[in-house]
Amino acid sequence: MIRCLAVDDEAPALAILADYISQVPFLTLVGTTTNPIEALTWVQQGRVDLVFLDIQMPKLTGLQFLKLSGNKCKVVLTTAYPEYALEGYENDVVDYLLKPISFERFLKAAQKVLALQPMAPPEPAPPPAAPIGAVPPPALAPAVGHMFVKGETKNKFLRVNYTDILYIEGLNNYVSIHLPTQRLVTYQTLRELAETLPQPPFLRVHKSFIVSLDKIRMVDGNTIYIQDKEIPVSETYRDQFYRLIREA
């Protein structure tokens, strides 16, 4: 999870950034401020991974902020003045967003930051195939009733009951677990999670989605409806999905 701080001397601009950050699964908002001195303190204390930084501010400009911060975090500049772009890139900013900022452009900048994060270790190679005629070892039973997922801080784990999961959405090395009243985002691939969940009721139906068959409200063609969410069924998983729901 990338910890974000939004810094701007205009409250409406901060509200837009806060809303955009809340919509990106791998970003978490740790604060907003109109005071660049306060923001600099947060950066120097190591409380921030990414700053969305306005350039034109009283007391301390965004470019002065960059020089004082000492590259202790990633920075995306936000401004209404395109003439500062070159100087921003000379100070190693990740991206430069020109106001008014669209969500599509914001998401592109966020993905640039994500691409600069340390890569997850490669998945281990599968074990060699057993010789023909060999008796396979007994399969391990899945964990009964629940699982634990990593929280937003080190050594924090959250218990998630299987019966509460509506569906799970993957985004690069993160998954978003959708529950009836909240959404949990954790650092894990969808493939890794799919291998630990009991099947059924959980089934992967798309490269980006795992659903709970128990929570499906309706299926219409190649679209699954869970509450108000529409989830596509891709061709890769279509036959298995329809076979299971016909047998249910």
Structure description:
The protein is α/β, with parallel strands linked by helices and 248 residues long. The protein has two domains: 2-115, Rossmann fold, CATH 3.40.50; 146-247, LytTr DNA-binding domain (OB fold (Dihydrolipoamide Acetyltransferase, E2P)). The protein has seven helices and 15 strands. The chain has helices at 11-22, 36-44, 62-69, 85-90, 103-115, 190-196, 235-247; strands spanning 2-7, 27-33, 50-54, 74-79, 95-98, 146-150, 157-161, 167-171, 174-178, 183-187, 202-206, 209-212, 218-220, 223-226, 229-232. The strands form four sheets. A five-stranded parallel β-sheet has the order 2-1-3-4-5, with helices on both faces. Strands 10-9-8-12-11 form a five-stranded antiparallel β-sheet. It has a three-stranded antiparallel β-sheet with strand order 13-14-15, with no helix packed on it. Helix 2 runs parallel beside helix 3. The two termini are 38 Å apart.
Compile the SSE list and pairings.
Elements lengths: L1 E6 L3 H12 L4 E7 L2 H9 L5 E5 L7 H8 L4 E6 L5 H6 L4 E4 L4 H13 L30 E5 L6 E5 L5 E5 L2 E5 L4 E5 L2 H7 L5 E5 L2 E4 L5 E3 L2 E4 L2 E4 L2 H13 L1
Parallel strand pairs: 1-2, 1-3, 3-4, 4-5
Antiparallel strand pairs: 6-7, 8-9, 8-12, 9-10, 11-12, 13-14, 14-15
Helix pairs in contact: 2-3
GO molecular function: DNA binding; phosphorelay response regulator activity
Pfam family, one: LytTR
Protein name: Response regulator transcription factor
